[in-house]
Design goal:
With 404 residues, this protein is α/β, with parallel strands linked by helices. It has 20 helices and 6 strands. Helix 15 packs antiparallel against helix 16 and helix 18 packs antiparallel against helix 19. The longest helix is centred in the middle third of the chain and has 20 residues.
């Protein structure tokens, strides 16, 4: 039931495998799947079909960059004579359903034997697809497992579909090379290399078109100027530049440090009513301490705005924004850098204490963290304000580990 006879069928029957997906972007994992399917099932042609308007996903970027996705698939498949690309879904202005695409393809290749390539995780839900009962009459399916899926579960799902829908589903396990489009987009958005994850032509296309730049700096700057006073805006730019300088000194990703610095105080000057309204809008989770001390909740809210409005998905960046006010135990190097940069950036002044702290920051970031935390704690006590327990935990953690 799960094997396949690779012996060539009647010589006049063309065998075509359809490979659909968002391909956002296409990468070597996709190409490995297609080539393994082609070789194992003796396929004459693998047609890549980039999705136009997905029936489920509402990510506007998928629709907005559909022509770029199409071009990247063309670039990636250009050197394989068995691979072709169809824009049949890209051209549509309505949601794309697999059944409709199969009908359209069948009209173009009326005498061909059609296969549809699917990942193992998609097989389980195929019976819920639009007009699923008709899909199985239009083609056979090839379920591909990359070694990261429970194949016993997969085979059970296949058996169910074959018994209840008269589906014909073949199974092929291929090596898992551990590449994902999501990871590529994340890396590209913060300037990390994607070399050897995608073909060089695709890498160059992404770079030339700045395709996955998650941050529109001009738009962010406009938001910062609108939300912040002149002094607070200058402090924000100073923090971002100081964080970048510290990151350079400690051999850390400077782009991540700069981005976290830009966002850290974006909601700093919201009043309490605005903070509550925006926390509700962005589903920002506040503990009891933050709810009773809303001015120190701006880091958490700012992180959620960075994620939801600017597509910042890197958790290290988000945590650096989130905990820059009071810290937490076992902070990452990026979190420490942004925390200290907030304390020592140039607009804070030029007194001897700050000058000494700046020197320490470039010698021992943990020591600088302790000084900053103790200063913040003392200032809070004098003002008779609450200090978040996470700040106390951060201070205790650093002191316990200062000799490590």
């Amino acid at each position: 039931m799960y094997s396949y006879n690779t012996q060539r069928e009647a010589s006049n029957i063309k065998k075509i495998a359809l490979y659909g997906g968002t391909f956002n972007p296409i990468h070597f994992g996709h190409l490995v799947v297609a080539e393994n399917v082609r070789a194992f099932f003796d396929i004459d042609e693998v047609i890549f079909i980039p999705t136009g308007i997905p029936p489920e996903k509402e990510d506007k970027s998928i629709i907005e960059n559909k022509l770029s996705r199409l071009e990247m698939v063309r670039l990636a498949t250009n050197d394989n004579p068995y691979f072709t690309v169809s824009d049949i879904e890209i051209k549509k202005t309505v949601k794309c359903y697999t059944r409709d695409t199969l009908i359209d393809i069948r009209k173009l290749f009326s005498d061909a034997k059609l296969f549809f390539i699917l990942g193992a995780d998609a097989i389980r839900n195929i019976s819920k697809w639009h007009n699923a009962e008709n899909i199985f009459t239009l083609c056979e399916f090839i379920a591909v497992s990359r070694g990261n899926y429970n194949n016993k579960t997969l085979l059970t799902d296949i058996e169910y579909l074959e018994d209840d829908f008269n589906a014909v589903i073949h199974f092929l396990e291929i090596p898992n090379i551990g590449i994902s489009s999501t990871d590529i987009r994340k890396k590209s958005s913060i300037g990390k290399t994607i070399k050897y994850l995608v073909p060089s032509s695709v890498e160059q296309y992404i770079e030339d078109n700045n395709l996955y730049a998650a941050l529109d700096y001009e738009h962010l700057d406009a938001i910062l100027r609108a939300n912040l006073s002149k002094d607070k805006y200058e402090h924000t730019i100073g923090t971002a530049n100081e964080a970048k300088s510290l990151a350079t000194h400690y051999d850390l990703d400077t782009t991540k440090a700069y981005i976290a610095g830009l966002f850290h105080d974006i909601t700093k000057e919201y009043n309490e009513e605005e903070i509550l309204a925006h926390c509700e809008k962005y589903s920002t989770k506040l503990d009891a301490v933050l709810r009773n001390n809303l001015p120190i909740a701006h880091g958490f809210l700012s992180a959620d705005i960075a994620k939801k409005d600017f597509s910042i998905e890197d958790e290290d960046i988000l945590n650096a924004i989130r905990y820059h006010t009071f810290g937490r135990a076992n902070m990452s190097m990026l979190e420490k850098i942004v925390f200290v940069a907030d304390c020592i950036e140039p607009t804070r002044g030029e007194n001897s204490w700050l000058q000494e702290l700046r020197a320490i920051a470039y010698e021992d970031i943990d020591k600088a963290m302790v000084i900053c935390l103790e200063f913040a704690l003392e200032k809070t006590k004098k003002r008779q304000q609450a200090y978040h327990p996470l700040g106390l935990e951060a201070l205790e953690y650093l002191k316990e580990n200062e000799n490590d």
